[in-house]
Structure formats: structure tokens, C-alpha cells
């Protein structure tokens, strides 16, 4: 975001991507923006069609400008924004909560053309167990909270490599 608005240096992103995440089996990327600990935007991709760096940049801009839950971020807000990049490992199919580790695994549900995703840190943030996480991801997808029990539901778990910090540095 700072790159887009101020021409900031991207070498820190390149270093973080190279040091923090093993790119052998990447599944996607999500960028989460918070202001004073309050969610301000979160957008991402489940597939890296243009490479990791491009996906991070596009997801950051989407989170800042296009998350339908929030008004677009303004340049004046940048000094208060913390950014977290979650690089997703390839997802794996699971049968239910017994194959899920809250706080370590994120979850994806797909059913009837609807899809929901929650990152692993959501369980930690809200002190949720596996069943609560499954209920929440169902509701996020616009499904009933128990839709994960439906045999037509496709459940997947994934782990992330997460890093981040303040969106801008003091000048």
C-alpha cells in the first residue's frame, strides 16, 4: 500500500517472503489490515496465478480499497495500519473437527456454490475450538452453522506462514 501511495521500498517484502515462507507448496495468500487491533480489511487469493509477490501486492490493495465490509482506506490512515501477510500452504481435505487443530489450521468450506475461509489466527483471537471455527466458517459462507456436517460439504484445512508489521515506517 505504501508502495502504491508513496513509492516505498519493496526489498523488505522480498526478504520476508524469502526468509519466512517455503514456496514448495504454496496455496495462496491473504493480507489482513488492522488499525489499533481492529480489523480494517482482509482479502486474498487461494491460488497464486501471477506469483507470490504479485499476489501479496494485489491482496494488500484489495484489502485496503475493495473489502466490501469497509470503506476504502485513505492515505491519512496508513500510519495507523498494521499489515499481516498470511501465506497459505496447500490445503488438504479433512472430514471434520477431529482432523483440525485450532490456532494452527485455517479452514475452508465449500457447498452449493458457496465458499468461506477463516485463517488460523481467528480461532486464537476468539478462543474458539474446532467446532466453533467450523460453525463460523459456515456462516461466513452464507450457510447454516451446521453445514459442515452435510456430506455435500467439502472441508479443507491449511496452515500459514504469517509475518507483518506497521504498514508505513515513520519518515
Note down, in words, how this protein is organized.
The chain is built from five helices and eight strands, in the order ααββαββββααββ. The protein is α+β, with helices and mostly antiparallel strands. It folds into two domains: 2-89 and 160-166, 2-Layer Sandwich (Glycoprotein, Type 4 Pilin); 92-158, Dna Ligase, domain 1 (2-Layer Sandwich). The strands form two sheets. A four-stranded antiparallel beta sheet has the order 2-1-3-8, with helices on one face. Strand 1 and strand 2 (38-45) form a beta hairpin. The two termini are 16 Å apart.
Quick recap:
This protein has 171 residues and is α+β, with helices and mostly antiparallel strands. The chain has five helices and eight strands; from the N terminus they run H-H-E-E-H-E-E-E-E-H-H-E-E. It has two domains: 95 residues, Hypothetical protein ph0010, domain 1 (Glycoprotein, Type 4 Pilin, 2-Layer Sandwich); 67 residues, 2-Layer Sandwich (Dna Ligase, domain 1), CATH 3.30.1490.150.
Amino acid at each position: 500500500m505504501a508502495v502504491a501511495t508513496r513509492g516505498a521500498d519493496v526489498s523488505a517484502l522480498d526478504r520476508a517472503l524469502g526468509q519466512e515462507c517455503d514456496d514448495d507448496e504454496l496455496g495462496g495468500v491473504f493480507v489482513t489490515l488492522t488499525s489499533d487491533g481492529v480489523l480494517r480489511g482482509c482479502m486474498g487469493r487461494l491460488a497464486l496465478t501471477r506469483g507470490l509477490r504479485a499476489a501479496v501486492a494485489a491482496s494488500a490493495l484489495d484489502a485496503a480499497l475493495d473489502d466490501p465490509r469497509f470503506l476504502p482506506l485513505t492515505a491519512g490512515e496508513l500510519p495507523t495500519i498494521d499489515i499481516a501477510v498470511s501465506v497459505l500452504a496447500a490445503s488438504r481435505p479433512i472430514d471434520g473437527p477431529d482432523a483440525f487443530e485450532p490456532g494452527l489450521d485455517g479452514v475452508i468450506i465449500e457447498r452449493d456454490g458457496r465458499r468461506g475461509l477463516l485463517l488460523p489466527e481467528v480461532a486464537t483471537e476468539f478462543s474458539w475450538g474446532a467446532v466453533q471455527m467450523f460453525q463460523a466458517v459456515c456462516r461466513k459462507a452464507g450457510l447454516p452453522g451446521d453445514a459442515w456436517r452435510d456430506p455435500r460439504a467439502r472441508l479443507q484445512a491449511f496452515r500459514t506462514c504469517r509475518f507483518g508489521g506497521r504498514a508505513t515506517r515513520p519518515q
